[in-house]
TrEMBL record:
CDD domains: ABC_NikE_OppD_transporters. Residues 6-255 form the ABC transporter domain. The keyword Transcription does not apply. This is ABC transporter ATP-binding protein. Its main location: membrane. Keywords: ATP-binding, Cell membrane, Membrane, Nucleotide-binding, Transport. One of its GO terms (molecular function) is ATP binding. It is found in: Cell membrane. It comes from Streptomyces kunmingensis.
Length: 327
């Protein structure tokens, strides 16, 4: 049994202008100790899927319109909010992009890390503080003992992200979801934070879902990749197979995108045009208006996830041609 199995998940948002279909039948699994990278531009549904797993979708207007989220075999979507909250605290945790707005500016970092131990484990303030120092050491914040009483603004962006990782790890969850955890950081700091996260994940044998728009950060840490477009998975494969030769033109475009060193979190996307409006997803293959390989059939027939190899699927009618073109 996988640690997490998302089955045919559908999420909609009701807006004044109609229903936006943010997630349209997503399936994926994550095992203990495994890293799944979920890739796509903003609006592809990668974060919304994660929020549905965590149970933190803003409802309304977000609504889970179908599917299952099986975590250690139980469907989280059927749990009461109170049970959900327990799972969220102790069994799965999330790391967000923006540590500064996720941390409380008027509480010391030690108090914020320690709070989890006093709330969930009933620890005394003194014990919780000792635990906080231990965790700050673990995420390699220098001079943890001296800095435990300092406030978030007294730390650099990279150190703040380490504090977020420490908080996420504190209760030793089985699953971590990291949503663009390094996007706001400088490139060299990005690599250090990513390496740390990957190392701790291996040590603690946690499942990790790494959400990113940047293929560059996943190469060394992910086991497999799910590429999302317009609320669907368009390619799903072991990481080395994707790098060898993408089987979907959208993945190929992501691979060919050039990271911009001068603008944090920005990149030059190799494929022209914008992702579709989720209230008006194009018929056939949703990617066809932007696809350099599109044929007539692409405008009418939705491509299923074709099996490419044992562990690989591509939602492109022309996946063979795409692989051949990359060789
Ligand atoms: Fe491009 Fe057609 Fe493949 Fe869609 S199905 S990615 S439009 S070639
Ligand atoms: Mg996002």
């Amino acid at each position: 049994m996988p640690l997490l199995e998302v089955r045919d998940l559908h999420v909609e948002f009701r807006t004044r202008d109609g229903v936006a279909k943010a997630v349209n039948g997503v399936n994926y699994t994550v095992d203990a100790g495994e890293t799944l990278a979920v890739l796509g531009e903003s609006g592809s549904g990668k974060s919304v899927t994660a929020q549905a797993i965590m149970g933190i979708l803003d409802i309304p207007p977000g609504r889970i319109a179908g599917g299952e989220v099986l975590f250690k075999g139980r469907d989280l979507l059927k749990l009461k909010e109170e049970e959900r909250r327990k799972v969220r605290g102790a069994e799965m945790a999330m790391i967000f992009q923006d540590a500064l707005s996720s941390l409380n500016p008027v509480l010391s970092v030690g108090d914020q890390i320690g709070e989890l131990f006093s709330v969930h484990r009933g620890m005394s303030r003194k014990d919780a503080k000792a635990k906080a120092v231990e965790l700050m050491d673990r995420v390699r914040i220098p001079a943890a003992k001296e800095r435990v009483g300092q406030y978030p603004h007294q730390f650099s962006g990279g150190m703040r992200q380490r504090i977020m990782i420490a908080m996420a790890l504190s209760l030793e969850p089985d699953l971590i979801i990291a949503d663009e955890p390094t996007t706001a950081l400088d490139v060299t700091v990005q690599a250090q934070v990513m390496d740390l996260l990957a190392e701790l994940q291996r040590e603690l044998n946690m499942g990790l879902i790494l959400i990113t728009h940047d293929l560059g950060v996943v190469a060394d840490v992910a086991d497999k990749i799910a590429v999302m477009y317009a609320g669907r998975i368009v390619e799903h494969a072991p990481v080395h197979e994707i790098y060898k030769a993408p089987a979907h033109p959208y993945t190929k475009g992501l691979l060919e995108s050039i990271p911009r060193l001068d603008q944090k979190g920005q990149e030059l996307f190799a494929i022209k045009g914008l992702p579709p409006n989720l209230m008006h997803i194009p018929p056939g293959c949703a990617f066809h208006p932007r696809c350099p390989m599109a044929q007539d059939v692409c405008r009418t027939d939705v491509p299923p996830l074709y099996p490419v190899s044992e562990n690989r699927r591509s939602a492109c009618h022309f996946w063979k041609e795409t692989i051949d073109a990359s060789r």
